[in-house]
Write a structure and sequence with these properties.
By secondary structure, the protein is α/β, with parallel strands linked by helices. The protein is about 40% helix and about 25% strand. The chain has 21 helices and 22 strands. Helix 8 runs antiparallel to helix 9 and helix 14 runs parallel beside helix 15. The longest helix has 21 residues. The radius of gyration is 38 Å and the shape is elongated. The N and C termini lie far apart (about 120 Å). The structure holds ligand C2E and calcium ion (CA) (2 copies).
Length: about 575
Amino acid sequence: MPEHDPSLLRAAFDESPIALLRCTVTDGAAGVIREANPAAAALLGRPLEALPGLDVATLLPGLDLVLPAQAHEDVGGWPQARVLAAGAEHWAEPRWIAASVRALSPAASGAPDVAAALVVLHDVTEHRRAEQHLDRAARHDPLTGLINRAELLRRLGAVDASTDGPVIAVVFLDLDGFKLVNDTRGHQVGDELLVAVARRIRAAIRPEDALARIGGDEFVVICPRLEQAQDARAVAERVRATLDQPLSVEGRSHRISMSVGIATAAADAVDPTDLLRQADMAMYRAKDAGRNTVRIHSADMDAELVAAELVREALQAALAPEAQPPTPGAAGDPAVAGLLLHYQPIVAIGTGRLAYIEALARLRLPDGTLVFPSQFLPVATRAGLTGRLSETVLRQALAERARWRDEGVDVPVGLNLAPGQVFSASFAGDALRMIADAGDRPSNVVFEMGEFGLLEATGPAQLTLRRLRASGIGLAIDHFGTGYSSLGALRFLGPNRVKIDRSFVASIPASPADRAIVTAAISAAHALGQRVVAEGVETHEQLAVLAELGCDEAQGFLVAHVLPAEHLALAAARWAPGTLERATP
Ligand code: C2E
Ligand code: CA
Ligand code: CA
């Protein structure tokens, strides 16, 4: 080392913007302050002259001030700084200080017999705050300030059976119809609504319950310390009921409900992802059960999930572009699996003539089980397969219609459309092209669709409907009278047919009220030039009332069962007018 000018060192120490302390060494650590520079005084928030004589370890409790063993050698860099909270009494707010310590050569210490240490202090408070901010951001949802999915799973993973037991519950909350609010009222209102919902939920749960927002409109509550699994239901009910009163957002009141799923576990047997998945599954059950309700996860649901998975796989295979319709055969033969159609005639009540034949889809699994639409349609919807389902059904139905025609029965075929399908811009074009490719005419096809969601149909859906009508395709409103039906739909959608839901058909003999509704629907449809079909006609009594009310056509077990094409025997079928008894020649 070259000779140093002591006045240079002095100036460097005093003027340095870096906080420096020269200390004694006690037990291998920095001890009493001998000298501090102005930067150190400023950093520590004390007068310069107050520092000498103070013990650094007392002044900065918790800081690791031990001299590194090799410090007398050149270790090529400062020893690792330790960061800890320093006492709050010196600063308005606690600050975070990092220190590095190294031994000074006896020459530099100024006293050859005394070991000395140089302590360099860094104020790392801002850095620390930024880190905390990032850490918070990583664990929280910025909109509501609630914890996020990652943090929720972390907390579930950290459940401690000794304090959180005996039972812990995960309550999964999903808003019903939130997307509609977002789409119609705008994201700003949607966001504020979510914040208001979070507040409501928070107010309904215990302080020790954790609340997370884990997706757009999905919230999760963790309830520790429950006595038994059933206790979770009360919590869930209370939370659900908080939305019974409308929320006020931007001066408007909003009604929104939520579907709630619960899963519970013994606190010593928590599998975080599993528990969350079970609660999610129960929530879906609540949705299926009509929303605004609570469901508890059960082992049955796991079994159903496995079944749904099998259905999804089978459906995916059945709807693959290269898939063939299934062939009759023994179970286990892969060719038995696939999508097949059964058929049911719609017959004119007055004349007994065939009006058209509705195709009803079935899915056969590789083990031969026949799966009905009530089971596979929800799966298809969730897997985004409804478009391909309709295409496959249309192709098969057109092929079947061609065979009937060859047998001398030239009758239109009816297909069911999934809700929302007409919202697809390409739907009408695709369907018309498929009909043309099959060498058929649009007027030989009837599309049946529920009117749910169509009342608010805008742009593309209106265009699709107009194109379909203009092409001559028949349109029927399915399940009329249920859900959101209105007589207005008859005018707006302009169908050729209205199918009265079978719940009305079942009740008209006994219920004058339902009879009045059906009468009104029939007269409205007739005024608009539309035919009325009764679904699910099972008894002569129902048929007699329907005939009396002027209903045009009937479908149901009384007329004909739903059958595979080969059992329909359409060529031979005759229905006696008025009674619609199948008259075998
Ligand atoms: P839907 O359009 O109301 O079809 C008639 C349903 O009523 C059929 O059930 C049929 O088996 C049943 N049915 C017929 N006559 C009677 C009767 O006299 N009494 C009773 N109780 N029921 C009767 P399925 O085949 O299980 O179909 C259920 C629903 O699934 C259909 O209701 C339709 O909305 C939908 N669906 C069927 N096939 C398809 C399809 O290819 N695509 C789409 N998207 N949906 C389909
Ligand atoms: Ca939702
Ligand atoms: Ca139908």
